[in-house]
Amino acid sequence: MATSNPPSSPAEQSAPPYAVVVVRTEITRRVTAIEETVDPEDEDHLARAFHYSIPPDLRGRLQPGHLVWVPFGPRTLQGVVVALDERSPVEETRDVERLADPEPVLLPEQIDLARWISDYYLAPIHRAIETLLPPGVTQDVETVIDAAEGASTEGLSEGQAALVRLLRQEGPLTSRQLARLSPVKSWRAMLKTLADKGIVTRTSVARPPSVRPKLVQAVRLREGITPDEWPTGRATAQIKALEYFYAREDREWIGLHEAARDADVAPYALHTLVEKGLLEETRRQVWRDPLEEQTFVPAIPPRLTPEQEVAWHAIRTDMDGPERHTFLLQGVTGSGKTEIYLRAVRHALDRGKSAIVLVPEIALTPQTIRRFGARFPSTLAVMHSRLSLGERYDQWCQMREGRRRVVVGSRSAIF
């Protein structure tokens, strides 16, 4: 049983001591006899979650929706915190190891939606949660097998000895690699025997994330640099670059290649200035924006027709009221339905909300983007399956941070 020191601050002291975690793994249940007792953590197998102790450094910080690393049997796996609890149904609990992401990846409403999906469609809760997780944030775990140092191989079968020789020759191997290289077919059963005897070791290792923030080299003029310190002689490109930085109105970081392009010099000139201490350098995140090449022409909302006025008055009144209703707009192509959608989105933004605009197929997305981009150019995001994983990840990050509040896309835009 893991033990934790008592929290110190008032916020930590008032925080629940347990986290309820849905672990990202398939959970099978093997029944060998009629069960007279029920595992407290297994009353509902489809919605199965596990209680973990919250260590002092996470007490008061850990929230429902956080993606975390937790011990699960002999492995360490990722899971999503779906609730906090004052009590655990089991006496002994293990600690949450660490956060996988500093900010929650799911909202409380999304956790409730996952529970509804699990209950309505009789789906395991971890599958429902997996559907809601943003692209690229999760990491899978694989087992790495290695021969224990100094372990005796005396008394092993021919197949077991062959496995040990392979590991000593090749070094640590993943389960996939071992399946490909193993000289025997029944290597899994042999591996368990070897591990029980301490002849081989098995370690859980997280695979690299499938997507990471995109970082680029950035530069800026070093504070206090004067023209007296500039290079002289034939360093014309370096002087030209410094003139560009001096002419800028601010000392904000700028991408190295962007600065080289704007200053009309080769990137090498900026690298040289960094080496001379005249420029500072860092790495900063840039967004992979699928709309980067788009130019939106601002559009002034047209005057509504009498029919549009009737529809918009009903929808706006409902949006301002305590309850929400579903509306169906009926009209032929070109009758002005999209203008009502645009007004509804604008009204939602004015009230501090956000909006999702769904299209039935990807082919309709470009024309919808043009219409909505003309009204909301600075806050528009797009989400569909044709985007790269990096683009989808960055769009999601900007939505989470509130940078993008209008999302246009197909079904994948919902989650």
Q: Could you characterize the architecture of this molecule?
A:
- The model is unreliable at 1-5 and 29-43 (pLDDT under 50).
- The protein has 415 residues and is an alpha+beta fold.
- The protein is built from 13 helices and 14 strands.
- Strands 2-1-4-3-5 form a 5-stranded antiparallel sheet.
Topology overview:
Blueprint: H1 10-14, E1 18-23, E2 50-53, E3 67-72, E4 75-85, E5 98-99, H2 108-121, H3 125-132, E6 141-147, H4 158-170, E7 173-174, H5 175-181, H6 187-196, E8 200-206, E9 214-221, H7 236-247, E10 254-255, H8 256-263, H9 267-275, E11 279-286, H10 306-320, H11 337-350, E12 355-358, H12 365-375, E13 380-383, H13 389-400, E14 406-409
